[in-house]
Design goal:
The protein is of the alpha+beta class. The chain has 3 helices and 5 strands, in the order βααββαββ. It has a 5-stranded antiparallel sheet. Strand 4 and strand 5 form a beta hairpin.
């Protein structure tokens, strides 16, 4: 595979664009060799869905479009960026149990951390922001080095 691959799509800030962003990302990952049913593919689609939803819902009509960028560096790191032109950075909202929203950034942070990645938000030159997620990439066909196994993974019971 190439040392560096990139893909980008700019979409209108419309709820229908969230599905279009997810579809674009899923197709790009398959083109880059990641099986559609891989856990990483599911994780990336969910992250993009949450970020695109935020770009549509929380820019209050001040960002007519948003851009989803993907970059794969040396088969090691996948970078996901969602850029909009609204200057306000995302913040964690208190989400009451009965609310249907307010948990997007919490979900993104959790998924990113679970994969061993990192999340950053940076301003753009134009006055907007890009929410960036970097995740480790395991190239198809390359074995993953196993981490330390827990007793539960081997079906053993801890001794007390």
């Amino acid at each position: 595979m190439a040392d560096h691959l990139e893909a980008s799509v700019t979409l209108p800030s419309d709820p229908a664009s969230v599905a279009a962003a997810r579809t674009h990302v899923a197709g790009t990952l398959v083109e880059w060799g990641l099986p559609a049913d891989a856990d990483l593919s599911d994780t990336v689609r969910l992250i993009v869905s949450e970020l695109a939803t935020n770009a549509v819902q929380h820019t209050f009509g001040q960002s007519p479009t948003f851009t989803v960028d993907l970059a794969l560096d040396r088969d090691e790191r996948l970078r996901i960026g969602v850029t909009d032109s609204h200057p306000r950075f995302p913040k964690r909202l208190p989400a009451a149990v009965q609310q249907d929203n307010g948990r997007g950034m919490v979900i993104i942070r959790w998924l990113t951390a679970e994969c061993g990645g990192r999340l950053r938000v940076r301003p753009t030159r134009e006055g907007g922001k890009t929410v960036c997620v970097e995740l480790p990439w395991t190239a198809p066909g390359r074995p993953v080095a196993p981490g330390p196994a827990t007793a539960a993974e081997y079906g053993a019971h801890p001794r007390g």
